[in-house]
## 1
Amino acid sequence: QCPGIEPLCLDLADWDATEAAVAAAGPFELLVNNAAVAVLQPFLEVTRAALQRSLDVNFGAVLHVSQLVARQMIAQGVPGAIVNVSSQASQRALRDHAVYCSTKSALDMLSKVMAMELGPHKIRVNTVNPTVVMTDMGRINWSDPQKSAAMINRIPLGKFAEVDDVVNSVLFLLSDKSAMTTGSSLMVDGGFLVS
């Protein structure tokens, strides 16, 4: 749908490979950080490996890629926008999500600090915080009506998000229509956090 977009396939936890790929791909005016992992374990069973992988991808990769891209934006002297895809889980505790919830909360705060420090360079930074999204993975993980019912019952709109719901929110935050919005979290949760 967007012929100007060229995907780069790499492990964002590998900082050297990421730096080389980003350096070869610029220049940038917009960035969406969407990579994440969700290793679900009860709090008492969280492993060091799961914690480290989640921190590396959900937090460290966003910090690193954003540094690389923001430096290029500043060097070009052009305004830019960064959208970090977070989660409703950054705001609400979920069983077996100790690490995931924590990394997404950290991502929300990182985004606020980025907004504060990058604002003078005319770079806006926001997050989109969706509920369960019906991607291929979302459909596999939430297709069981008994599992999904408990979550859907807490969503006033009575459904999970579709990919377009998140994409449209990201596009809004990247566009000039949100030119005065930075440091904000846009909840795309069907009202989950108000219930």
## 2
Amino acid sequence: QAVVDFERLGEHAAAFQGHDVGFCCLGTTRARAGADGFVRVDRDYVAQAAELARAGGCKHFVLQSSRGANAQSRFLYLRVKGEVENLVQAIGFDHCTILRPAVLLCKRQESRPMEWIAQQFLGTVALLFPTAYSVPVEMVARAMVACALQPGKGRVKVLENGAIHELGKA
């Protein structure tokens, strides 16, 4: 494990060398970082880390994005997620897997009251419709590992929430 300064990521290129697979779950919130900070973290840092990984020999990059990611979206969150997906794909990894989970069910260290309410509601809905609106973070992690172990055919694979559930169960 290497601790890096994302504001000086280029100075940490050695930390990105010699890895076959890169996993990226980096992200923040607009509320926490502001609009500019959100874009810097969720798009710029992720794209720069992917570039360093590729330059360091990484063959397969696994990116956690978001359901609804779309570079043409009017909504900042979805637009930035779509933009970073496009940037990472353009880097030219042998394999690029993009996971688009719905609402992540997890315990957070910081207080996010509205997200907590949504998680409680969606956790209950998940009993009836387990793959429709949410996914436990543990399932996303298992799906990411499964993608790395068996990347499949094709250069780019995009997994929506239902496929994440299926892969995460295996």
## 3
Amino acid sequence: MAIFSVYVVNKAGGLIYQLDHYAPRADSEKTFSYPLDLVLRLHDERVVVAFGQRDGIRVGHAVLAINGAEVNGRFTADGKDVLEFLSNPANYPVSIRFGRHRLSSNEKLMLASMFHSLFAIGSQLSPEVGSSGIEMLETDTFKLHCFQTLTGIKFMVLADPRQAGIDSLLRKIYEIYSDFALKNPFYSLEMPIRCELFDQNLKLALEVAEKAGPFGPGS
């Protein structure tokens, strides 16, 4: 069981804090000879697998590294176009690492804003007056849990579907936010949270939640 990440979104839908706590590794690195037996294409400025699956490499996986050098979007570390590089027989044999692409800061900002809108839509669609909005989204690989305060701040936790004690963890994160962000004289409301004590106590709370599940009284 694991807690993957934490997001804090202000009442306007802006992402003011994000922490990647645990990212499951699903990368696959293989050495290929020419011609490449996978079909690659450009998607959202990334080179991804469009057709062909083998040895843990799946459709949708992105090219993360070539010959041990990290790939940035569609370009290698030394600025070469990935598709052009892989179309040249002289560059083979070549070692390629595939995996799920890492979200950029801009993508995280956009997704937080999208969830803020979905939360509002969920609240408006509810047949009951005063609905709190979306509190949990479930997939086969993770659950997204959301807690909104009375002032409109949203705390979101992405965790393994089997992880227990998330409701208690969300309340604990709210306490940490109140103690170490709101009481910080240098912190401005609705602005990004950059408080070392907030970071430290949040990470400790995530570790406790993973090991022990729910928080007890006085924790």
